[in-house]
């Protein structure tokens, strides 16, 4: 678990940068940075400052510092939005009470005096601002009197809070008396000619609210409170929006691009990057229109980027990079472009598969601030501008060819020393002829290797270095010349990527001196340059050039592994990691397999009560983890719906406690809980001695599902369990489902049984509620013997109907039986629902439409869940215990 350090831990070098920041603060970017540094200065622990002054920021500190700044900004924005929302909510409640308890017009303001302000927005401005529905039908309540809005800036603030897209100086305000319908409803219509007055000054604001008061008292129609309409009009004199930068002119729509181009570049600008955070923020914003993806590192020393850009906007992207002062001419060798763009289809599967599914090389654009763009581990910074000769690829090609020929003649005394400055796993799958690998596991180890390798070399020995894209050789070149005193150092300009491209572009049928695969730092993990297979699978020893990272997050070792082993080992490097991945746990001893390793707990330390509780509960058989993995592989977007280990154990235990082990599940999904129930029902059968349970008697599970795909996966799972039980063999069988197309069930019905004791039927239905109501009515085709436990886990909006079907008579659920309802805490939001105000899913002006929609749905469901919980606890036909496990599980006993 990641533990956030307290803010105090940001002990970097405020005083060190202080004077520089003061002069820097005179520029506009400087001012931004200045404000940020001021904020940070407040966060720093002054007692630590002096001793920390000269220490450069560590990577971790930089990251934490950025997180803290962003967090502070987010919190402050959220606070102000929340305050507005709370206030409006409070007003609405007060107004509601007021209107229900006090309709006396003589004293309308029992609650704080409020104005109902209708907001009408000019059509042009509406379109420009792309207003949401709520904004178009604007209404706010503003307090009057000393707490109310009395100034023009106060009124502007209210409007900025209301319209997230409203920009300073782009609008004018006027006010008018709103039209009132005969039954007292306040409408919001465009103001009539000559009936509106402008609001420009504080006096206009006061006069406007006075007018509202007058209208309230004089209106022929009875009004609940004073109201006024504020009109937001487009300012004809507003300065035109700045023209788009030249590099965006005439740009194609990146979404229409048929191909993606992979590229990389780096820059070590001589002046460095003054404020990496501001730079990262700026550059991300600049690149947004291009739909670029990738991973970019920014540090004081420069920029290092691996990206993919839609090919139809590549020229615009490059033009944009050129005018950024820190990039531009400092992008050594320009932008390193992969010779062959990928079609969109190729791109979608060019990355390393995730959960055995195709994945693109990049999914997002990450621009991250680091302490260095290539971590070198040196204790001082060298002059990156002076790093030897940047040798053009064709010259390099000739030199390597000559070296080969010389070597063939047996005289290689004058040959250059060619050093491959990449790590061992990169060198293993591809290398230049005649090159010597440094054989490092990490770039930081290069210096000792170089010292050792070159200790006897004359200072004028020709040394040629290369790496993937050239950036590492800048550091190696600087080290060799400045620290070791070599005078004849050259580096392959643009690295292997540029070599490959240049050779392809400039020659026909010229033999590449680089053999094998060029490892690249994006999801492709390699680009084949020649078909030589040089690597050896670390797991089985066959020849392969495939490189991947171990899927066990705690290991993540980069390794060479063939496609078969990748599948068999679940993308991990060893049996140990495979077991961890399968079990979804973080710690297992080397060599253990699927076994239920309760003994591991004795030596384990625990980080939380949850961790401790899991560690001291009998572990679930490994087949369950396999089912979860299959769900993630085949239905990734719904994988969170699976009950999972903790809840699954509770469900199995509850099923084991029932009288006859008869369980009905509503919402099978991929069958995880179904198998838990089968396990419990089997346990009951083993005690009672009743076997071969079925729809009419004995231990039996019926589960209803409407989704075909989920149904098919669940069918495969329960059938595997029916065939192999719950042990290791079942785990292997279930695991095998992962890599195959799940077979479609012929029909809507699948039967299985666990250990010949507990029977199971999966039914595909159109609507579980209709089916249970039919069973409860006794008039349908299904007439199962009553169940002991009904697990309600289908649609969450009709819970009371499902429960009613269980309680209306005893056909569906036995007396003394249990109804178990999942998700009753709805991500903890029921607490906020019960308070009538949501803070964690409140709308914020910065939220995009999707988030607004998601939050609205979350609030709606939380309210419904709260209503259900409030209702069921008052129902005297049942007794309820709400367990705060996972997303909340209510166990309801039918009296
Ligand atoms: C939360 S998941 C069930 C998870 C499963 N019980 C488990 O614990 O692993 C809910 C499932 O109910 C299904 N569902 C939702 N509404 C339904 C309905 N009216 N009839 C049948 N199935 C429904 C969904 O397709 C989904 O697969």
TrEMBL record:
| One annotated GO molecular function | O-methyltransferase activity
State the UniProt keywords alphabetically.
Answer: Methyltransferase, S-adenosyl-L-methionine, Transferase
Alphabetical list of Gene3D superfamilies matching this protein: 3.30.70.100, Rhodanese-like domain, Vaccinia Virus protein VP39
Reply yes or no: does the keyword Transferase apply: yes
Q: Name one GO biological process term.
A: methylation
Report which residue ranges the record marks as coiled coil.
none
Its signal peptide is none
Report the Pfam families cross-referenced here.
Methyltransf_3 (PF01596), Rhodanese (PF00581), Rhodanese_C (PF12368), UPF0176_N (PF17773)
Q: Which family does it belong to?
A: Belongs to the class I-like SAM-binding methyltransferase superfamily. Cation-dependent O-methyltransferase family.
Mind telling me what this protein is named? Rhodanese domain-containing protein
**Organism of this sequence:** Cylindrotheca closterium
